[in-house]
Write a structure and sequence with these properties.
With 299 residues, this protein is mostly helical. The protein is built from 11 helices and no strands.
Length: 299
């Protein structure tokens, strides 16, 4: 695609952000993400307890504190401290089903939002949409765990790896850069999987890369700027009291949802530009199948 075509796709994506009421849809998604955040953290704490690394969950929370506002992290520590005072094994055995179901509700809403972004009808049966949401929650959860694993292992891990595998000394020097590169690649892969499987669209997996890269880059920059805003300008505790941390989390999840949908809008416009202005749904109603021409490049 030419540079001019990419510019036109960006322009149409910006128009679709307004036309699809993306800000309002992001607000709805942030609600479901809030519902799933703490059950997922509780389940994660139960899982990492069986991994033989000292204070692994504490290091995961420390990594989260680099992205989330300070008020939010104080609330997270408070909630987890109250809930995890009970036996962790109980959460691992009985909390799993509730966690999966709650997390799948967020992904189910994301499926519908991405169908809107791609301008395709949501024609999957309810049971199929929920099973897909559960699958997405599991796949994205595993990939995010891999991302956290790469980030949690510190710089010393490069030295240990080089020693045991007899790698050259230059590997130790480039390990910090390699560590961050792997984490970013895993994060992009998570977004690509979401863009590829969630919307009811026939597309190649590689076609989801532009929007995924845009999402991850903008999300990292936006998280940093929000951190500065919460730290030096906003004072939610003064306005909302004890709810300040919760409001900060809602704001962060709101803009995270918005960036995810903007990346999907870009992918949709790039797909339309290469497919003569339309995309083909994976699943169509019988009376609509004759209206859409087959795509040679669809996966």
């Amino acid at each position: 695609m030419s540079v001019g075509g990419i510019k036109r796709a960006f322009g149409r994506a910006c128009q679709d952000v307004v036309r699809h009421h993306t800000l309002q849809v992001s607000a709805a998604l942030s609600y479901y993400f809030v519902l799933s955040t703490f059950p997922c953290l509780i389940f994660l704490s139960a899982v990492v307890a069986f991994i033989p690394l000292p204070d692994l969950f504490g290091r995961v929370l420390l990594l989260m504190s680099r992205l989330l506002p300070a008020e939010t992290m104080r609330m997270v520590y408070s909630v987890l401290g109250d809930v995890l005072s009970s036996h962790r094994g109980t959460w691992l055995s009985f909390g799993m089903l509730g966690t999966i179901w709650t997390a799948s509700a967020a992904f189910d809403s994301m499926i519908e939002a991405l169908d809107i972004a791609y301008d395709v009808p949501s024609q999957r049966p309810i049971w199929k949409s929920r099973l897909l949401a559960i699958g997405l929650a599991g796949i994205c959860g595993l990939l995010l765990l891999a991302t956290l694993a790469v980030m949690v292992v510190g710089p010393l891990f490069g030295e240990v790896l080089a020693t045991h595998l007899a790698l050259p000394a230059v590997f130790i020097k480039i390990w910090p850069l390699l560590r961050w590169t792997l984490a970013i690649c895993f994060t992009i892969l998570v977004v690509e999987v979401l863009y590829f499987l969630a919307p009811n669209v026939k597309q190649r997996f590689a076609a989801t890369l532009p929007g995924a890269v845009l999402t991850v880059v903008v999300w990292n920059g936006l998280s940093y700027l929000l951190g500065l805003y919460f730290r030096y300008f906003a004072n939610f505790n003064r306005t909302y009291g004890t709810l300040g941390g919760f409001i900060a989390l809602m704001v962060w999840l709101y803009w995270t949802s918005f960036v995810l949908l903007v990346g999907a809008e870009l992918n949709a416009e790039l797909a339309k530009a290469s497919r003569k202005g339309r995309v083909e749904p994976r699943q169509m109603l019988p009376d609509e199948q004759h209206e859409t021409a087959p795509l040679d490049s669809a996966a």
